[in-house]
Write a structure and sequence with these properties.
Order of helices and strands: HEEHHHHHHHHHHH
Oligomer: single chain
Number of helices: 12
Strand content: under 5%
Radius of gyration: 18 Å
Number of domains: 1
Largest sheet: 2 strands, antiparallel
Strand order of the largest sheet: 1-2
Shape: globular
Length: about 300
Amino acid sequence: MNRGRVWLAAAGAAVAAGMTVAGLRRATRGRAGWSRVNFRGTPVSLAGGPGVAAAASLGAAAAAATPRTAAAALAAGVGAGAFGLYDDLVGGRPEHRAKGFHGHLAALRQGRVTSGMTKLLGIGAASLAASALLPRRPGSPGGSVVQTLLGAGVIAGAANLFNLLDLRPGRALKVAALVGTPLAAGPCGGVAAAAVGAALGALPADLAERTMLGDCGANALGAVLGTALAARTGPVGRTAALAMIAGLTAASERISFTQVIAGQPVLRWLDELGRRPGPAPGAGPAAGDQVPPRKG
């Protein structure tokens, strides 16, 4: 894919994300369910999520090198975004509340299908469809079923990981730009470039705490980047990526990403870049998500 097309994909997605986020914020202002209180106690609009999901998914489809890759990017991004938005809008209701994966399983055993479980199954199905649509790399070892399952794991795992990263304004968007930029320089670069552009386009409003990604935007952004990664790797590469994603996800159950970042000067500087100063120690929640604790 030529470099000009990659830059065009990034620029187009950035403009689309910025305009869509601003338009959705105006359209949903005052509507029930579209506002959350972030870690600082500031009311923030969920409009950032659908804006990023739409810009990243449509931009990736437009910039994809093949029709099958375009369809895969759409399936991953739109699927993850739609199920994430459903969880954002209804997950706070009493019948949907559960803490963590084990909580959702316990609710299922009680006959309750929570929005979190619906999201989990829905993103899994969308990731499987996306992976099945991706062209198989010529000469890659391993059967098509194995490659498809590994690709689905990478896409779904990336969607979940970005949701876990979305704990502070701008954090998940910055990580998307950092991870997506080298992916944009290689094969299937247009898909990653669109995700990077969408992240950068939504970053100013996110850092200013006017909007936030929520599950919708974080899941969609991760799914599109996961698709870009799966599209350029065979079984070995997908296995390595899945192992890394699984390791980070497992680590998040035991350690706080926020505390790790705070303890590393360079990471702390990057994380806080562009964000207004946080509350003084002891003033408000110290390590809360951008949305209520039900997130994730």
